[in-house]
Design a protein that fits this description.
Layout: H1 2-20, H2 37-42, E1 48-52, E2 55-61, H3 77-85, E3 88-93, E4 96-101, H4 105-121, E5 126-137, E6 142-154, E7 157-168, E8 202-203, E9 208-212, E10 219-227, H5 228-238, H6 248-293
Antiparallel strand pairs: 1-2, 2-5, 3-4, 3-8, 5-6, 6-7, 7-10, 9-10
Length: 294
C-alpha cells in the first residue's frame, strides 16, 4: 500500500512538472476576460442585473418574512469589490491546507458591478440572488468553481447565504460521461430557512462572522455576515504606504500574486518532501535488487 501511495504521488508530481508548473508562463495564473461595467449595466433587464448561460445576478423577493432589509442602499462597485475581495476559502492542495480567493477576477468584476447596481434598486422586501462560475488555479491545472448565494444588507452588514461554495463545476457526470441535467441538479442560492452545509468553508477575517441561529444557538456554515465599514477600514489600513498612483486593480493583483506565491512555496515544499521520501524508497529497492542478484 505504501508503495502504491508513493507511485500515486510520483504521478502527481510528473503531471505538475509537465503541465501545471509550466503554466506559470501563461496558463495557470492567467485571469479570465472580464466584461466591462458598461457591458454589465447595459445588459440589465428588469430584475435581471446580469445573465449568461447558467450564471446570473437577479433581484428576487426575500424567501422568509421578517425584518426589512436596508434597501435601496448606496454602495459603490469599488466598495463592493473590496468587500468581495476580502473573502477567502480554505482548500487542501498537495496535502497542505491553504487559503485561496473565493472569487476570480472576472467574478469580482461582474458581482461588484451588478450587486452595487442591484442594491440601489432593490426594495426592503427583496434580496439579490447570484450564480457565479469562475476559473481558478487548481493543484494541477485550471478548474471551474461554482459559488451561489443570496445577498442582502441589514443593520449595516452584508449578509451572504451561500448555496454552493467553490464547488468544482462540471458539465458531464464523471461516472457516466452523460451531460448533467441542471433541471434535476440546479445551482441553487442559499435560503434563510435552510443550511446547505457546503463542503468548503469561508476563512473568516476581520469584520466577518458566521450567522448564529437564534433557535439552535449554532453557527450556520453557509451564512456569512460582513460588517461593511470594518472590512473597508481594514482594507484601507492594509494599503497604507501605497502611493496614490497605484490603482485598486494593481493592489488586488499584488495581493493575489502574494497568495499564489505562498501557495506555490507550500506546493514546492510538499514536492521536496515527497521526492525525498521516494529517494529513500528507490535506494531500498536498489539494495533489495542487489541482494536478489547475489
Amino acid at each position: 500500500m505504501r508503495k502504491s501511495v508513493k507511485l500515486g504521488r510520483a504521478i502527481v508530481i510528473s503531471m505538475m512538472l509537465a503541465g501545471g508548473l509550466t503554466a506559470c508562463g501563461g496558463g495557470l495564473f492567467t485571469v479570465d476576460k472580464e466584461p466591462t461595467e458598461d457591458d454589465i449595466l447595459l445588459g440589465q433587464d428588469g430584475n435581471t442585473l446580469w445573465e449568461t448561460g447558467l450564471q446570473y445576478v437577479k433581484v428576487v423577493n426575500r424567501d422568509v418574512a421578517g425584518g426589512a432589509n436596508e434597501h435601496p442602499e448606496s454602495l459603490s462597485s469599488d466598495q463592493m469589490r473590496t468587500v468581495l475581495s476580502s473573502l477567502y476559502v480554505v482548500e487542501e492542495k498537495l496535502f497542505k491546507t491553504t487559503e485561496v480567493p473565493l472569487f476570480a477576477r472576472s467574478e469580482l468584476q461582474v458581482l461588484s458591478t451588478a450587486l452595487s447596481s442591484g442594491f440601489g434598486q432593490a426594495q426592503p422586501n427583496e434580496d439579490i440572488n447570484f450564480v457565479s462560475i469562475g476559473t481558478h488555479a487548481g493543484s494541477i491545472a485550471k478548474e471551474k468553481k461554482t459559488t451561489t448565494g443570496r445577498v442582502f444588507i441589514s443593520d449595516g452588514r452584508l449578509n451572504i447565504i451561500f448555496g454552493i461554495v467553490h464547488e468544482t463545476y462540471r458539465e458531464k457526470d464523471i461516472a457516466t460521461g452523460a451531460d448533467i441535467d441542471r433541471r434535476l441538479n440546479p445551482l441553487l442560492p442559499g435560503k434563510r430557512s435552510f443550511d446547505s452545509k457546503p463542503a468548503v468553508r469561508v476563512a473568516l477575517d476581520k469584520g466577518q462572522s458566521y450567522y448564529l441561529d437564534p433557535e439552535t444557538g449554532t453557527e450556520r456554515g453557509n451564512w456569512i455576515i460582513i460588517d461593511i465599514a470594518t472590512v473597508l477600514a481594514t482594507a484601507k489600513e492594509r494599503k497604507e504606504g501605497d502611493t496614490s498612483s497605484v490603482t485598486p486593480e494593481l493592489l488586488e493583483d499584488v495581493a493575489r500574486s502574494k497568495q499564489d506565491a505562498a501557495n506555490l512555496r507550500h506546493d514546492v515544499g510538499s514536492m521536496k518532501e515527497i521526492i525525498f521520501e521516494m529517494s529513500e524508497e528507490i535506494e531500498n529497492l536498489k539494495k533489495q535488487l542487489e541482494t536478489l542478484k547475489e
